[in-house]
Amino acid sequence: MIETMKNRIEQIVEQACAADTNIFGYDIWTHHILPVIQNAKQLAPRFDADPEIVELAALLHDYASIKDEALYADHHVHGPIEAEKLLKRFGYPEEKREAVKDAIATHRASVTVEHRRAEGECLANADAMSHIEQVSSLLYLAYVHHGMGVDEGKTWVKAKLQRSWQKLREDVQDILRDTYEAALKIL
Predict the structure, then answer these.
(1) Residue 52 contacts residue 123 (beta carbons within 8 Å)
(2) Where are the domains of the chain?
(3) Distance between CA atoms of 173 and 167, rounded to whole angstroms?
């Protein structure tokens, strides 16, 4: 049952990524959502987080902004609402829905929040990891989506990487140190 639900939600999110209305383009699926899911699954044991909750939260963490550009600025606020709608439709238990929603609400590096659950901290780290590992997607966001010039885009990407790095727990920083330093050196 849970695998069927995950597969169906995965299809819904991927279809939203493929929609013409998605301001990020389909690449957000391959270069952000899927890496965040993979990172979250890898990190779950390290954070003593529920792997099912973490995987669903990773799948849905940016869904609101993918679905509707107007929700981008506050997608950490709108994301839990969208997750509730989908998870409730599939009959996902309320207690687990709350854990998924909490993780989504606390995943952003640009918003200072306290992680109330291990799953939220795990997702925040998985999201930050993907930014550091997928610098090309940040460059696309800066130069294509935001239409920035070379210097402005470089400054924006560097700041995004630094915020992501600060969000990482020390043991996760150890995993990514070489990648992070290489990215900063290129910028």
Answers:
(1) no
(2) 2-186
(3) 9
Reference 168, options 122, 135, 110, 133; nearest CA is: 122
**In this structure, which amino acid lies at residue 83?**
A
Architecture label for domain 2-186: Orthogonal Bundle (1.10)
pLDDT digits (tens, 9 = 90+) for 117-144: 899 999 999 999 999 999 999 999 899 9
Q: List the Cα angle 133/137/139 in 5-degree steps.
A: 105
HSE-CB of 18 using CA atoms within 13 angstroms: 6
Percent of the chain at pLDDT exceeding 70: 91
Residue 117 DSSP symbol: S
pTM of the model: 0.91
Residue 31 three-state SS: helix
